[in-house]
Amino acid sequence: MPKRRRNTIANSTEGLIGGSGSNLSEGIIEDLVNAVNGRLDNIVTVQGLSRTRNRIEDINIVSLGNNRYEVSSTEGGTYIVDMNENSCECGQYVYRNECCRHLIAVREALGEVAEVDTINNVEATRRARDIRDEINRNIRGEEQDDNHFYTDNEVDFDNDFAEINDDSIEYEYENVLNGNKSTFGVELEFVGGDANAIARELYDLGIVSSPRELGYHSRSEPGKWKLERDGSVSDGDAGGEIVSPILKDTPETWEQIKLICDVAKRHGARVDQRCGGHVHINMEKLDTARQRWRRFFKTIEVYEDCIYRAAGGDLGKVRSNARHYATPFSPRADESKYIRFNMDNDEDVRRMAAEVSKGNRYYGINLTNIARDRAPTVEFRHFNGSLNEKQIQANIKMAAGIINAAEKARFRDTEDEIFKKRGNILKNT
């Protein structure tokens, strides 16, 4: 779920990502802060979903000492949770061996994300806000899941794969990311054509910031695309890279992408083995949450080969220079399991990104924008270049979906059975 933090790199306005403030009341935040700092010395009340009654209920927690807690709800029973054994006396845990809402409630109240017994009020407030955001997000259900698993429907997969072609795929304009609020950006490399003519027409349409091709890494204008030179694809006035501003899942965004592709192709632009189509995704969903980064790294470690296969796009295979400009990240993802790092603040995130990336921006996953405090984005460099709006949209969906899965696909501490199932798939790979 999005973390609504005003003071984190995930909400920086300087990069590709924007953010919003929390709507929590100060009373709620203060209660949770006290719960974290006091480690449940008094009665603490949190909210949890009762699946039996299908509603949110207050859950009261009292410390019994020795990391054991008495947990009761307004209309449910009273159970003992032992955090030393990570266990509960309720039937869901004892007979089904499932993580129950009582365990989840204690973890939320303890503020386990802090991983310390005493933290200052600034950090406590921040973690308390995260806890409440987690609850609110699950209640609102902003993101949708079609509950379809090809792993359970191999015949469906075979049929869909046999029938799929470009004409059968619709280019979407509304709710393309299924409620995912992550901001994103793209870099579209092309060869040939007249770069200045493309820039002029896009400028006249109000899309780009300059009527001519700009130099490499020219200054960006907020809300405007730009067309700039890139040494790997530019040749005189031909070739270049079209770079987006911060984008959101709105009809205007998808209309602009289609229009840019149409204009570029009309002036002779095309893609070949040299071209990449990089996708940046807001890192807000990962932010300072250690386990989300772990899930993200495991996803790349296990499935990067699949990402490369899908990234072939229109060309049908990975571009020839990918091993230089999009080196496999999976060895670094695997290495991350053995790197010890704190995740308590923004500087910790930057240090982690620097250590895992080793300062190399040419991995399939580029974390150097985070490490160097340039922009709080995860860059997916695997994708081939494309001027097919459907392919670009599919690439964005994939990248955003991977980040979303790293946030949501938990095999415990969640009442959402769909995401729990997805979490177990990742856990068992």
From TrEMBL:
<feature type="domain" description="SWIM-type">
    <location>
        <begin position="79"/>
        <end position="111"/>
    </location>
</feature>
<dbReference type="Pfam" id="PF04434">
    <property type="entry name" value="SWIM"/>
</dbReference>
<keyword id="KW-0862">Zinc</keyword>
<keyword id="KW-0614">Plasmid</keyword>
<dbReference type="GO" id="GO:0008270">
    <property type="term" value="F:zinc ion binding"/>
</dbReference>
<dbReference type="Pfam" id="PF12224">
    <property type="entry name" value="Amidoligase_2"/>
</dbReference>
<keyword id="KW-0863">Zinc-finger</keyword>
<keyword id="KW-0479">Metal-binding</keyword>
<protein>
    <submittedName>
        <fullName>Amidoligase family protein</fullName>
    </submittedName>
</protein>
<dbReference type="InterPro" id="IPR007527">
    <property type="entry name" value="Znf_SWIM"/>
</dbReference>
<dbReference type="InterPro" id="IPR022025">
    <property type="entry name" value="Amidoligase_2"/>
</dbReference>
